[in-house]
Design a protein that fits this description.
Blueprint (H helix, E strand, L loop, with lengths): L3 E7 L3 H12 L3 E8 L6 H15 L6 E3 L13 H4 L21 H11 L4 E5 L4 H9 L3 H4 L2 E5 L14 H4 L2 H8 L5 E4 L1 H4 L6 H8 L2 H15 L11 H10 L4 E10 L10 E4 L9 E7 L1 H18 L1
Parallel strand pairs: 1-2, 1-4, 2-3, 4-5, 5-6, 6-9
Antiparallel strand pairs: 7-8, 7-9
Helix pairs in contact: 1-2, 1-11, 1-12, 1-13, 4-5, 5-8
Bound molecules: beta-D-ribofuranose and calcium ion (CA).
Amino acid sequence: MAPKKIVIDCDPGIDDALAITLAHGSPALDILGITTVGGNVSLAHTTANALRLREFLGFPGVPVTAGAAGAMVRSAIEAAHVHGETGLGEAVLPEPTLPLADGHACDFIIDTLRAQPGEVSLVAIGPLTNIALAVLKEPRIVDWVAEFTILGGTFTRGNRTPAAEFNIAADPEAAAVVFGAGWTVTQIGLDVSTTAQATGPIVERMRALGRLGSELLIPCATFYGMVTASEGPAIHDACALAYLADPSLIEFRPAWVDVETAGRFTSGMTVVDFELQGRTPNAKVGTAIDVERFWDLAMDAYGRVAASL
Ligand code: BDR
Ligand code: CA
C-alpha cells in the first residue's frame, strides 16, 4: 500500500520531536510538509527546532513553514519548564543550513489539501491556531482533507489545569473553531497519551539506536520526566503519528466535543459528550492505546532512522 501522505502541524517540543522522528521512520507515512506554531516554546524556537530536526533526521526536501506565534485572541502561554528553554530538553542538534519556506503555515495547509483532495491527512500536535486560521480562510479544507487528527484535549483530567490539556488551553478559541468546522476530528487526548510512557526498558531500547538514541531520543525523553522501570514521561504527540501509521493501535468512541472558552476555572476544557443526544458526532475520541504495540511501532521507525544517520 502507498504510504499515507501527511502534513504535521507542530510546536517542537520534546514529544513533537519524537513524533516527527516516528513519522519519518515509518514506511506507512510520507511527510509532505511540516508547519510550526508557537506553543511549548516561542515560534522562533519551535521553527528552529523543526529546521534542525529536518536536517538531523535527513528529510531535506520536506518544506518547513512557520505559522502563528500565539493564540488568536489571548496572550501566548508556554511550557518551557517542561520542554526546556529551547524546547528540545538536553538535545543539542546542529544548526540548520537549509531555509524556511516562504509564506504562512495556514496557506501551506490550504494549498496542500487543495492540490490533492481526499489524499492528504492533517495532524496537529500543538495549539490549534494554524488550523483555525486555515479553516477560517478556506472552509473547504474540511472536505479536502483525508483525515484530521489532533493530539489534544481530555475527557478526564487536564495537564495545564485540572480541566484543560495544554494544546487546547493554549488557544481555546482556535480549538472551538476547529471542532465546529464541520469535519470529524480524530481526537487523541491525555486519556490515551499518558499511558504511552518512556519507561526504563524503553529508554534501554533507545540506547541501542546509536546517534539517534544518544543525541536526540534519550536527551529528550529523560529531560521530560523521571524514568523508572514501570513509569516514565508520556510521549503524547507520538501517539497521533503512530495512529496514522497504524489506526488499529487506538480504540475510539464517537462523541460530540465542545470547547469551553468562557469558564472561569475550565477555560480550554474539551467537554466530551459520548451520549451525543441526537447530534451527529463531530469527533471520534480515543479511549485506549495498545502501549506494547505502540512502542514496537515507534522502535521499528526509530530503528530505520537510526540506520540512516
Ligand atoms: C501536549 O502539550 C505539549 O506540551 C506537548 O508537546 C503535547 O503536544 C500534551 O498535552
Ligand atoms: Ca506538541
